[in-house]
Design brief:
It is built from 2 helices and 2 strands. α1 runs antiparallel to α2.
Length: 49
Protein backbone atom coordinates (compact mmCIF):
# COMPACT_ATOMS: atom_id res chain seq x y z
CA UNK A 1 0.00 0.00 0.00
CA UNK A 2 1.44 3.35 -1.07
CA UNK A 3 0.81 6.42 1.04
CA UNK A 4 1.98 9.82 -0.19
CA UNK A 5 1.92 12.93 2.01
CA UNK A 6 2.29 16.28 0.25
CA UNK A 7 4.17 18.55 2.63
CA UNK A 8 2.60 21.74 1.23
CA UNK A 9 -0.90 20.41 1.88
CA UNK A 10 -0.01 19.50 5.46
CA UNK A 11 1.55 22.92 6.11
CA UNK A 12 -1.50 24.67 4.63
CA UNK A 13 -3.85 22.59 6.80
CA UNK A 14 -1.90 23.34 9.97
CA UNK A 15 -1.69 27.05 9.09
CA UNK A 16 -5.45 27.21 8.52
CA UNK A 17 -6.19 25.54 11.84
CA UNK A 18 -3.82 27.87 13.70
CA UNK A 19 -5.42 30.93 12.11
CA UNK A 20 -8.88 29.70 13.11
CA UNK A 21 -7.77 29.05 16.70
CA UNK A 22 -5.65 32.18 17.15
CA UNK A 23 -6.51 34.96 14.66
CA UNK A 24 -3.86 37.18 16.26
CA UNK A 25 -1.17 34.85 14.89
CA UNK A 26 -2.17 35.54 11.29
CA UNK A 27 0.98 37.48 10.34
CA UNK A 28 3.32 34.89 11.84
CA UNK A 29 1.45 31.91 10.40
CA UNK A 30 1.39 33.40 6.91
CA UNK A 31 5.09 34.30 7.09
CA UNK A 32 6.09 30.81 8.25
CA UNK A 33 3.85 29.21 5.61
CA UNK A 34 5.41 31.28 2.82
CA UNK A 35 8.93 30.46 4.01
CA UNK A 36 8.21 26.72 4.13
CA UNK A 37 6.50 26.68 0.74
CA UNK A 38 9.35 28.72 -0.76
CA UNK A 39 12.01 26.38 0.61
CA UNK A 40 10.17 23.26 -0.54
CA UNK A 41 9.69 24.82 -3.97
CA UNK A 42 13.36 25.70 -4.35
CA UNK A 43 14.62 22.32 -3.17
CA UNK A 44 12.04 20.28 -5.07
CA UNK A 45 10.93 18.49 -1.90
CA UNK A 46 7.19 17.84 -2.12
CA UNK A 47 6.51 15.14 0.41
CA UNK A 48 7.09 11.70 1.82
CA UNK A 49 6.28 8.36 0.29
Amino acid sequence: MNFHVDINAVVALIAGILILLQPGLLNYVVAIYLIIVGITGLTGFTGFK
